[in-house]
Design a protein that fits this description.
about 290 residues, five-stranded mixed beta sheet
């Protein structure tokens, strides 16, 4: 089986656990997820199945959207609700102050990744070091926040924001920085990914519903994960060459749009992805 399923990841489950459940349901040994979500996060989680796992690194994942709940007045070592409380301060902020402060996080910003993250230092995950009480220097990195807005504020200490951002943006860090800016501290209490890997939350199925479904009705064809790349249609002879790992002469192909990769089809059958190199279309991923 080659394809993928869009799971609305449940609260508390790791992305790895969700992938394992999909693997057992489909009976396919090769399964992998795109765009890791922390256990407390919910929302869009594509799980690739079979040969479609080869597409994980090629999925357009440059834009993501989240809804996050903020609790003001407290900070934690993980920057979210799972951590140990570090500070407890009085909250005296207004809705207008929050909206004004959020404007400073739009555009290209610099973040220092949190210690409790899946990034690695000398081959060791940062969160593993953090659990041992070890803190290491992390290099600041630039990310882009396309938009950030306040959705609600209870007038006391809880708010909800919506963020559209580039890959690699830590919403927890934005919230922690926001709390410092407002001089009261803050942590992230909830996080939901509403858009990622080119798919929205309303296209997803709950893990439970997937496990109870007929997989023929829920597994999506592999090529739907890479629709951002243009399509090329080949002849039967070219299809055989391509699937055998051989390059195709560009002069014999009808290419309208320039791109880094192309979806290759024989009629309606998806053959894989091709990459242009030295005036040839070289197989990148063959199905």
């Amino acid at each position: 089986m080659n394809g993928f399923v869009l799971i609305n990841k449940p609260f508390g489950a790791t992305s790895f656990k969700v992938t394992g459940a999909v693997k057992r349901k489909t009976g396919e040994k090769r399964c992998g997820h795109a765009g890791t979500l922390d256990p407390i996060a919910t929302g869009v989680l594509p799980v690739m199945i079979g040969r479609a796992t080869r597409l994980i690194d090629l999925i357009d994942d440059n834009k993501k959207a989240y809804k996050a709940e903020i609790v003001f007045g407290l900070t934690t070592d993980t920057l979210d609700c799972e951590g140990e409380v570090l500070t407890d301060q009085p909250v005296n902020v207004t809705e207008e102050q929050i909206r004004s402060a959020l404007k400073d996080f739009e555009g290209e910003i610099t973040q220092i990744p949190p210690m409790y993250s899946a990034l690695s230092k000398d081959g060791v995950k940062l969160y593993k070091l953090a659990r041992k009480g070890v803190e290491v220097e992390r290099k600041p990195r630039k990310v882009t926040v396309f938009s950030i807005k306040l959705l609600s504020f209870d007038g006391v200490d809880t708010a909800e924001i919506e963020v559209v951002c580039s890959k690699g943006t830590y919403i927890r860090t934005i919230i922690d920085d926001l709390g410092m800016k407002l001089k009261c501290g803050a942590f992230m209490s909830k996080l939901k990914r509403t858009y990622g890997s080119g798919f929205s939350l309303d296209e997803c199925i709950s893990l439970q519903d997937f496990l109870e479904s007929d997989i023929k009705d829920t597994v999506i064809p592999a090529d739907k994960a890479v629709m951002s790349f243009p399509a090329i249609f080949v002849t039967q002879k070219q299809a055989v060459r391509f699937q055998n790992g051989n390059e195709l002469d560009l002069k014999r192909l009808r290419i309208i749009e320039k791109a880094s990769y192309y979806r290759v089809y024989l009629g309606k059958k998806f053959l894989g992805l091709g990459e242009i190199k030295n005036d040839s279309l070289k197989p990148k991923c063959v199905f």
